[in-house]
């Protein structure tokens, strides 16, 4: 979804994210082994995020709110949907511009600067990125499943359909409703092949959302 804004995804490079094995920078074990490396990695991602802007795909989704009730469920940790104007965004995998205490997961705060070793919460615990790493629970999953279950239309945009449990969310959709999968290189996963009323649009997020918007409004 955010690739056309200049944000790279690790699935585009066989598990490498900006040259790093994802388990080194996106797992509790990686953080325990080398916290300075992990913090520096997310500092770089945070700086990059503050330099990019939403693309036409983001704005197309936001504009749909003029005609539809739109809930965005995203695996992305950036804030580009919000900046594009979407009013209801649920982040499955956390948010890059937030941090939380390692001693109290409920202690979350907005953070737009670098995060370093020695930055602690009010109780003295080291602060970490507010990101759901591999091997960690996805707190928003139940809410996301409920949103999909009550939807009249489901649109899947720009995902590899390889990361679980997020990839399984489509299975909660009502069988009879229209479903759309937009991706320049769509992965024909089990969830996609078994979903009824699924239309695949082989296009980028920007082009695919333009095509879909025209279709929905007509």
Helices, strands, pairings?
Layout: E1 16-17, E2 20-21, H1 22-25, H2 28-33, H3 35-49, H4 56-63, E3 72-74, H5 80-84, E4 89-91, E5 94-101, E6 108-110, E7 127-131, H6 141-149, E8 154-157, E9 179-182, H7 190-194, E10 198-201, H8 205-217
Key attributes of the depicted protein:
single chain; 218 residues; alpha/beta; Rossmann fold; three-stranded antiparallel sheet; three-stranded parallel sheet
Task: Provide structural commentary.
With 218 residues, the chain is α/β, with parallel strands linked by helices. It has one domain: Rossmann fold (3-Layer(aba) Sandwich), CATH 3.40.50. It contains 8 helices and 10 strands. The strands form 4 sheets. A 3-stranded antiparallel beta sheet has the order 6-5-7, with helices on one face. Helix 4 (56-63) packs parallel to helix 8 (205-217). The radius of gyration is 18 Å and the shape is globular. The mean pLDDT is 91.
